[in-house]
Amino acid sequence: MAKTVFQKNQRVWVEAVGAWANVEKIVAIWAKGFDEPVRVTYDVGLGREFFGHELKPEDQAAGLNEDGERWRLLRAKNKWQQPADCAHHPFPGTYPIVVTDPNDWGGWRTPGAEYDRDPHRIERQARLIASTPRLQALARQLIDLVAESPEDAPPAVLELARQAAAIERFVNELPAAAEMPEASEGAVA
C-alpha cells in the first residue's frame, strides 16, 4: 500500500532535475479490492510524474526554533469558495496556515474575507511567519558574532547587531501582569 508523503501545493526539491517545484497534483493508482492506493506519484509540472522518494521537502530542520519547535506552512481547503470562484488567488481553492505545533494545530490563520481581499499579501505574511524561527536564529548568530570581537566589527554591522539584540529583548520579554482595577465600593455585583 502507498501513502501520500506530500500535500498539494507543497514546495519540494526534485532531485532528478535539481530544481524546486510545487506539487500540482497527487496521482493515486487504485486496484480493485484494496482500501488504499497501490502507488502514489506526484505531478510537479516538470513533464513527468515523480515518486515520493524522488522528492524532498523543504529543509524542515532549518525551521526549528530554540525550543526545537518546527513552524511550517500548510495549505487548507477553502470552505467558503470554490476554486473556480477564486482564480485570482495564488493557489485557488486553498489558503495558507502556519502551524507551530507538532500535531498540526495551533498557529496562525487568517479570516476568509481578509484572504480574499488581498491573497498575495496574506501569502507573503504566511511565509514570513513560517520563516521567523530561522530569521531569529540568524539574528542570534549576528549578535554572537559581533559579541566575540566588537572592536573588529564594522560600524554598520555593530548597528545591525544592536538592533537585532533590541528586537530579541522585545520578543523574549514577558509582559507585566495587567493590574485589575479594584471594584468600587458602591458597585453592585
Number of strands: 9
How large, in whole angstroms, is the Cα Rg? 23 Å
Bulk shape: extended
Q: What distance separates the N and C termini?
A: 64 Å
- How can the largest sheet be summarized? 3 strands, antiparallel
Which features would summarize this protein structure in a list?
three-stranded antiparallel β-sheet, alpha+beta, 2 domains
Describe it for me?
- This protein has 189 residues and is an alpha+beta fold.
- The chain has two domains: 11-57, no CATH class; 61-172, no CATH class.
- Helix content is 29%, strand content 20%.
- It contains three helices and nine strands, in the order βββββββββααα.
- The chain has helices at residues 112-117, 119-148, 155-172, and strands spanning 11-14, 19-22, 25-29, 39-43, 49-51, 55-57, 72-77, 94-99, 107-108.
- The strands form three sheets. A three-stranded antiparallel beta sheet has the order 2-1-6, with no helix packed on it. The protein has a three-stranded antiparallel beta sheet with strand order 3-4-5, with no helix packed on it.
- A hairpin with a 5-residue loop joins β4 (39-43) and β5.
- α2 (119-148) packs across α3.
- The longest helix has 30 residues, at 119-148.
- It is extended, with a radius of gyration of 23 Å.
